[in-house]
Amino acid sequence: MSKDGPSIPDEEWERFLRDAEAGTRSAPVEPSARARMVGRRLREETGPPPGWRTHQPPRRGRRKAWHVVGLLLAVGLLALALDPGRVVGWFGDRGSTSPAVESASQLPTPEQPFRGSPAADWFDGTAGISVPEARATGWMTKEQVAQALDRTLGFLAASSLDPDVLRGERPKEAIALINPHQRDVQDYLAAAFSEPSQENDPLLLFSRFTQTKVRLVGDVVRTRGQLTFREGKRGAVEVTSDVTYVYPVVRAGTGGDEVARTIARRETVMSWDDPAKVITEAGTFSLLSYKVDATNGGCDNFSGYFVPDFTAERAAKGSGEGPAVDPYDRGTSMDARMEADDEECGTATRS
């Protein structure tokens, strides 16, 4: 199979979808994000569907926020600062266009890397991710749903919180939880770590920093988010995770103590499939969709690593012209965030 070619011709997929709706197929099928997208397009469009690539999540837009212009004044003991790596928020009305004043005591330090941000009151690691009470759903008993939720939480820890993965190592434990028979996703994973690109970007699923440029401040990552679940197709248990991760970093080596924060909000939809109906392996899930909205991770960066800016880089780039966004806002859906900034980098109101 070629890298960009479909695993099964469109005509066969269309025939399969018609047969499935008519109830004429009962054998297990290979889960495919491509098949799901084709099916959705067939229902939504009256004309023939366009060609599909092997891997194309529903929405792949990403915000890599440029930060507001720096400002430094001294009035007695009060220091006013707007810093791109630790951007001061617009703490008044959300529609305000004037940056708020921040005292020196609010700026992050290596000892207090979350100071001055909402993450200062968030929990560490998976403790910040709420998990619903399990109940029998689809093909799973209550106990099996509880296990699926626990494994989903394990995937989030292995993909976005594991210290080795954050330092740039391959996320082997996380990848082991993904259905190996989902070929389009496996092709994406193979390309993402050998030849990262806009199409095959590991940051859609995994958080990674290059150690030659930055290092994490301690081992603590602050989070806020939740898991939800429902019955999906073929009786599968469909689990959605929507989590915001806050990563404080400093320059690698002797680059000083300036703390920058990269903020990544990820939404991942996983299908825990019935093995009687879908080709899968025990303890693994199929991916239905995955997207990330990242602030201060590098605008138009497809290196496979987050590349946060510090004061010097921000000063050289100037202020961004994209839409303003509060990276801590969790009241806006991920779809709305993607639509608001599908092509250009936005401007973070705080970090």
Kindly describe this structure:
The chain is of the alpha/beta class and 351 residues long. The chain folds into two domains: 1-54, no CATH class; 95-348, no CATH class. 22% of the residues lie in helices and 20% in strands. The protein has eight helices and twelve strands. The strands form three sheets. Strands 4, 5, 6, 7, 8, 9 and 10 form a seven-stranded mixed sheet that branches. A three-stranded parallel sheet has the order 1-12-11, with no helix packed on it. Strands 2-3 form a two-stranded antiparallel ribbon. Helix 1 packs across helix 2. Mean pLDDT is 77; it is low at 1-8, 20-25, 32-61 and 65-102.
Descriptive tags:
alpha/beta, three-stranded parallel sheet, 2 domains, 351 residues, 8 helices, single chain, disordered N terminus
Topology record:
Layout: H1 10-22, H2 33-44, E1 66-67, E2 71-75, E3 78-82, E4 123-124, E5 129-130, H3 142-160, H4 163-166, H5 172-175, H6 183-194, E6 214-216, E7 222-231, E8 237-251, E9 260-272, E10 286-295, H7 311-317, E11 324-325, H8 334-340, E12 347-348
Parallel strand pairs: 1-12, 5-7, 11-12
Antiparallel strand pairs: 2-3, 4-7, 6-8, 7-8, 8-9, 9-10
Helix pairs in contact: 1-2
Structural class: alpha/beta
Shape: globular
DSSP E strands, number: 12
What gap, in angstroms, lies between the N and C termini? 44 Å
Please outline the major beta sheet.
7 strands, mixed
Count of helix runs: 8
Number of domains: 2
